[in-house]
Design brief:
The structure holds 2 protein chains of 2 kinds.
Chain A lengths: L1 E2 L1 H7 L1 H7 L5 H9 L8 H17 L2 H12 L5 H8 L6 H23 L12 H7 L18 H30 L7 E5 L11 E6 L3 E6 L4 H26 L2 H27 L5 E2 L3 E6 L2 H9 L7 E5 L2 E5 L6 H16 L8 E4 L4 E6 L12 H15 L4 E6 L7 H18 L2 E5 L5 H5 L2 E8 L12 H11 E7 L9 H7 L4 H12 L10
Parallel strand pairs in A: 1-10, 5-9, 8-12, 8-13, 10-11, 11-12
Antiparallel strand pairs in A: 2-4, 3-4, 6-7, 6-9, 13-14
Chain B lengths: L1 E4 L6 H14 L5 E4 L2 E2 L14 E3 L4 E5 L9 E10 L2 E8 L3 E3 L1 E2 L4 H14 L4 E4 L14 E7 L6 H15 L13 E3 L6 H10 L4 E4 L9 H10 L1 E4 L4 E8 L1 E2 L2 E2 L2 H12 L3 E3 L4 E3 L1 H4 L1
Parallel strand pairs in B: 1-10, 1-11, 2-5, 2-10, 11-15, 12-13, 13-14, 15-18
Antiparallel strand pairs in B: 3-9, 4-8, 5-7, 6-7, 16-17, 18-19
Helix pairs in contact in B: 3-6, 4-5
The chains are: A alpha/beta, B alpha/beta.
Chain lengths: 529, 286
Amino acid sequence: MSVDAVTAARIGWDWLRAAVAPAGAFGRRYDETASPYAPGDERRAGDEIAECVALAQQIEPAALERLRGTLRAVPEPTPIVVRAQAGDVLGDVDFYELARFADALDELERVWNEAGGSTQRRPPRVERLRALLGPGRDGGGFYLSDAFGEGLRSSRAELLQAENALELRRRDVAERVRDVLGIVPAGDEFVVMRELHPGPLPPDLRLVREGPAYRVVAFALETGARDDAFTRVAAAEEAARRELSLRVAAEHDDVISATRALGALDHLLARAAFARRWGGCVPELTATIAFEDGVFAPLAEQLAARGRHYTPLSLELPGVAVLTGPNMGGKSAALATAGFLCACVALGVPPPARAARLPLLERIVWLGGDDAARQTRLLSSYADEIVRARDILATASQRCLLLVDEFARTTGPREGRALLIAVLEALRSRGAFALAATHFDGVAEAAHVSHLRIAGLGAGTFAALDADDLDAALDAINAAMDYRIVAADAPGSASDAFALAELLGFDRSIVARARALCERPGDEPTARG
Amino acid sequence: MVVVGTAKNSGKTTAFNALCAVAGRRGIAIAVTSLGRDGEPADALDGEAKPRVRLAAGTLVALPAGLVPRTPAMAILESGASSALGAIVFARAMLPVTCEIGGPPTARAMRAVVRRLTALADGPVLVDGAIDRIAPLAGGDDAIVLATGAASGATVSAVAAAAADAVARLQLPGRDPARERERVVEVDGALDVRDAQDLIAHAAGATVVVSDPTRVAVRGGLLAALRSAVDLRCERPLRIVACTTSPLGRGVALPVQQLVHAVAQATGLPAFDVVSDLAAFPAAAS
């Protein structure tokens, strides 16, 4: 499904993607390769959403967060097994990291079981890899122990013996140096100042370099036996690493498969956490847009941050519909809610609604409203809108949802209304979904599409307010506004422009004059509010 | 314990190795790490041969994954913060081993590495340090050994003066509310030449507090003038316990005994030449 930048900003697409971002790298990689669901994917999308909802019901929020935290901590084994498969001889830190990966999967399984996770979605295990590395495990670490190669034990014993013999020899020489020169060297190399020791050097010392005042000398120790032993240890250790690397390479597919399973689990848990937070439902995936108590979560989150309440919306969109209602009544929010819930199912996210019937779409498009990006271009508001509408209509099909927000409001109202009617007729004939918010009168009837409206302000709710206190005015509007979407012919207020103007501190005498003008026969404007 | 040098090639790694060797001889298990990159065969900048870091069996070390020697194999215990050469790995030498060591890139990560080494080790932690990167260790009970030598001066008196200057700067007393003057000036960030001039001119007699001694960027006579004008203190002091001396520099060989005595006298700290096996103490020096 495609969503352009303007639409993404309007319907909270990016917000949603961030809200269901996986906790760890495996999940992020999984998400990068997973495309949104498209028409035809209904079964897979439905299964995923159902699993998310089941997980959300099954696992407590705190346990969900523990699981996500554990997933985040799983180390990345992929580059290591890929290198092993390419024939590289791995290092001990690589083996340690693989062992840590196996440990982390054990820990994840423990947390999963503790959280009451289902057996079908149990985290992956890498038993063979764990067994391979077992001889090197002592506590949480890794050591290329003698068990990894036949020659290791003996060559290491020889090296230790050679090192000890060398150390004994070094001590002998050091004692002689102490006796003759009165120096106790800390290392193998030391300085003899000519002012202190002008005479010949004792045996078993070699001159490294000298100056007029000093001689740098070092122990002349025979290191051949130690060097040979070291070489044998190096050969034995590399042989052991090579063998172990080959066996790790054989586990490549299992490890990669485990990382994918981890990614899928991370992806699901992120969605389950979202469902826990926003109360997602399992929708019926069908060619209808209908939902009860749907929540446009980005707006709900913003309002909650300001101590305000979001009113869930219900909508049944039979193809194309016009949505009218007062300013600040939530028309744009209703459009966004419809787009957001469709975006949820496209991403396999339980839509935050009590119940929903939603389609998988090819495209969601927002048309109209203020577009900040437009201001950087040379076109006027109207021209910009027309160009965008031209491009949208060129490809609009049955599997598109167009969210039309006060289209053509910046041109003459008579022509703007006619254009909107014509656009809606075109969309209806193509079988597309469209919800068009407008203040133009009679559009739904003229285009032969459904007419819905925001219920609007209740009567007699505007007690005298301090005109300068916008916060109080917003509270009053919020308290008085009925944000429900109802059929246009339902009883109640239809337009509240004058009441809102008064409530927002507009000069009452001007509002009264406007009201009088509006009530004079023959003076009705063609655009309301 | 942290070994820092007054200049490049001042014998820091030699002093570090000497401390490791002494610990080994006395059977003291130690843990080691570095604030930079040490023990490489040749200096990355000038190509000069450098002393390697030699670790006895049983030594615990924190080093980047890229510097873990392949032979003899070390036991990898844990991994931690990342660095340019891979994650910092905590490992134990199973056989005597010669290697390069390095440390994490940030002060906070270094503090965490030292804390973790302290928890894992049965004995002291030894850090091959750098004078401009010891701020993260300030305020703890770490002992600091200052390596100095012919690399920081062409004469005995020049080396001793450089050592005394470094010690004076690093040994700022800690803040003590009971002894604070009536006026207290807290300096955020570095105390530079301009700050020092301002303080001498306008804050004489006040207590001046910096966060740690490495924040003091003035040297020599100006530092002495500042300290006599104000009561200069720090929030998190460092503890310098000794100096080491290295008589050899590029084309310079200083008289070893004179040098070790001069440094002890100038700094008021015990001074050691770990290569020539000499020691001098301030009391004896004076």
